[in-house]
Amino acid sequence: SNSSYKITSSPLLSFNWLICLYLFGILLLFEIAVFISICYPYLLMSFWVFYFFRYFLECRLLGKRKPILGGFKITHKCNLRCYHCPFWEKETGELDFNKAKEVLDKMYKLGVRIVIFEGGEPLLWKDGDKNLIDLINYAKKTFFSIGVTTNGTLPLKDIPSDVLWVSFDGMRETYKKIRGDVFDKVIRNIKESNHKNLYANVTINKLNEGEIEEIVKFLSELVKGITIQFHYPYGAEEDRELFIPLKERVNILDRLIRLKKDGYPVMDTVRTLNAMKTNSWKCHDWMIANANPDGTITEGCYIKNRGEINCRYCGFAAHTELSLAFDFYIPAINMGRKIFRYRVV
């Protein structure tokens, strides 16, 4: 027989569905909470990636020009009289702690997210009971990475920067001619340092070019890595004895490339070292800002307002790496990440 059935909803059935949906929602929220609690630190760690990616898009696609790397020359005072350095001779005042913080804040507003304190000798800077350590700790609240460059004559313990460079420009006799009779003190301070990310930076000139292999091999036992630059002629009489023209750099750079390929910790990328043979790389100097001991900030080339700018004389490998990173050269990006150890802020 033909029968028809009419399906009707039951209040009990609807209630059961509601209970199921409620329990499912509770379970889903619990799983989301567990996921966030596990992944949250890693999501935070990636925050600098998002900023740099946005920076890249804004500058590459929208044509914005703002700095990302800042050098803060906190003082011209120095306890050495290095042959190649023009800064210790400058007569300038110094900022107090609050003014120095204002300069850092201004650099941050410009777009800077990596700051390197330099000098002079930055570890000599003081304002009452405040010193460079206090400035580093203040800067770490907002910047992704803080670096310090030092001559290494002062203790290198408990410096809270993300990276620390010691300038080192020759073996004993050459070092003495360039920097003075402090070789043993600097080596002792390097060995006694408790910094987890300690590097050496070598400024190559005519006095030390013959020692490159010896310098790199010697330093490789003491520091995590080595970066280089060539002496820039600021206009002093000593420049004639120190400056190496482009055509004479080729052999030096090839030797550095061989050292790197042999496993020595030369941090500069091969492409940077090759580009510096002719200075054929495209310089994005607008990515740099420089603050001075009087609080003034300049955007652009490191030499701006410090000497005569001549791109054929440039030997700043760090600026080459920065420009190549903007041009999306992955090894340069990875080198920066390894050295600066970007943090969450």
Assign an overall shape.
globular
Spatial order of strands in the largest sheet: 8-7-6-5-2-1-9-10
String of helices and strands: HHEHEEEHEEHHEHEHHHEEHH
End-to-end gap: 78 Å
Write down how many β-strands occur, each being a DSSP E stretch of 2 or more residues. Answer: 10
Helix/strand/pairing class, anyone?
Answer: alpha/beta
Mean pLDDT across all residues, rounded? 90
Describe the sheet with the most strands: 8 strands, mixed
Low-confidence stretches: 1-7
**Share of helix, binned:** 40-55%
Total DSSP helices: 12
What is the C-alpha radius of gyration, as a whole number of Å?
Answer: 27 Å
- Strand proportion, as a percent range, falls in 5-15%
How does this model look, in words?
The structure is a single chain. The chain has an eight-stranded mixed beta sheet, sandwiched between helices. 42% of the residues lie in helices and 13% in strands. Residues 1-7 have low confidence and may be disordered. The protein is globular, with a radius of gyration of 27 Å. The protein has helices spanning 11-45, 47-61, 97-110, 132-139, 172-179, 183-192, 212-219, 239-242, 246-261, 270-275, 317-326, 330-340; strands at 69-73, 114-118, 126-127, 130-131, 145-150, 163-167, 198-204, 225-230, 288-291, 297-299. α11 crosses α12 (330-340). The chain is α/β, with parallel strands linked by helices and 345 residues long.
